[in-house]
TrEMBL record:
<keyword id="KW-0804">Transcription</keyword>
<dbReference type="GO" id="GO:0003723">
    <property type="term" value="F:RNA binding"/>
</dbReference>
<protein>
    <recommendedName>
        <fullName>Hut operon positive regulatory protein</fullName>
    </recommendedName>
</protein>
<keyword id="KW-0805">Transcription regulation</keyword>
<dbReference type="InterPro" id="IPR036482">
    <property type="entry name" value="Regulatory_HutP_sf"/>
</dbReference>
<keyword id="KW-0010">Activator</keyword>
<comment type="subunit">
    <text>Homohexamer.</text>
</comment>
<keyword id="KW-0694">RNA-binding</keyword>
<dbReference type="InterPro" id="IPR015111">
    <property type="entry name" value="Regulatory_HutP"/>
</dbReference>
<comment type="function">
    <text>Antiterminator that binds to cis-acting regulatory sequences on the mRNA in the presence of histidine, thereby suppressing transcription termination and activating the hut operon for histidine utilization.</text>
</comment>
<comment type="similarity">
    <text>Belongs to the HutP family.</text>
</comment>
<dbReference type="Pfam" id="PF09021">
    <property type="entry name" value="HutP"/>
</dbReference>
Length: 139
């Protein structure tokens, strides 16, 4: 099946909001449909965590076979992750944030979604950011 950018973005969002027990089933189900997906947790002060979030996104994408060892693929994931971070940063600057990164790819489409809770005492805000990039198909 030929999956488009919207389809891949939806999978990235679903991966970011899934819990660990559902994640493995989602990964398997989407792989059978031709979409590679993974998720990874993160937490801490958002601004100081930005490099760690991008690094975790890259490592997770490589480990799961979503991207190859290539600076073009690394750049696509890092760029999409940075875009997602910049969408949520205005609400989280200076506060502790924890959540999950969802990554999905089919063909030339790759999306990175960040779903997180921003904590201030017992008051939590929930935000989501999404980035998309195109890159050469791995076939």
């Amino acid at each position: 099946m030929n999956w488009g950018s919207v389809d891949v973005a939806k999978v990235a969002v679903e991966m970011s909001i899934s819990n660990r027990s559902a994640e493995e089933k989602l990964i398997k189900d989407y792989r059978e449909k031709g979409i590679l997906a993974t998720g990874v947790d993160f937490g801490g002060d958002l601004i100081s965590s930005i490099p760690k979030i991008i690094e975790r996104s890259l490592v997770a994408a490589k480990r799961s076979g979503i991207i190859k060892e290539s600076h073009v693929h690394d750049g696509a994931v890092a760029g999409a992750a940075r875009e997602a971070i910049m969408q949520v940063a205005p609400k989280a600057t200076g506060l502790n944030a924890g959540g999950k990164i969802g990554i999905a790819r089919s063909g030339e489409h790759i999306s990175v979604c960040i779903f997180m809770s921003i904590g201030l005492l017992h008051l939590n805000e929930v935000v989501i950011g999404l980035g998309h990039r195109s890159l050469p198909d791995m076939k």
